[in-house]
TrEMBL record:
It comes from Columba livia. This is Zinc finger, HIT-type containing 6. Keywords: Phosphoprotein. One of its GO terms (biological process) is snoRNA localization. Residues 225-251 are annotated as: Disordered.
Amino acid sequence: MKYSCSLLCVKKHKLAQSCNGVRDKTAFVSVNEFTDLNLLSDYRFLEDVGRTADAAARHPTVHSPTTKKLLYCLRNKARKCNIDLRTLPVGFTKRRENSTTFNFMEKKFYWHLKLVFPHCHAEYTLKGVPDDRTLADILKPYIDPVESDPVVCQRLRMYTMSPPSDVQILMKIENRKRNSVRYNELDASRSLLDNLKGKVIIEYPTLFVVLKTLKKDMVVLGQDATEPAENSDGESSSLSSVEEGEIRDTL
């Protein structure tokens, strides 16, 4: 939604903002700004959702007994750890990406994990992260001035130059309306498993690493004086923002 003067300008914008050039069809639009074009866009979006869901339902992998059994075991083990793990239909981006496994011998999850550093427009995907590893240890290769990779350190310079006390780890609360996004603050000194307990996870955890002085638009649950207290799961019957985003990515 930005104006550009040339192809070079477009390429620089996409690189700087990690933009793929595709309009966000699920972006929030207030009632006062809602027009006939927005209505038509929503209508076409819902039609596309229907076609995508139908195609996913027809996918042979969906009806595979092995796939169903593995997903059931994964969700069941997560539930015993007090984690509400939810999986998306075949065809969704996060379903294809997810490499999370459970080791029955060690009785331990090895998570597929995504780290997002919004102030530097950077994302990193980790595979096979043991659930007993602390968040501080997970972040060391990225924001620790001594142990981080030089290339990564340079890209995340804003974080590596900030004091550890200013770094905050957040995780978006699922099943909330798009105009009421809230985040849970995680404890860097505790394990990944401890931090995920009591929370809803769609496919795999996505952690947002932010600086307290710059996270203006990221509201932590319980820190908004205008918001009444509610369940940390943010119970709602509407489609979660992650699911909407995954539908958009699939289309």
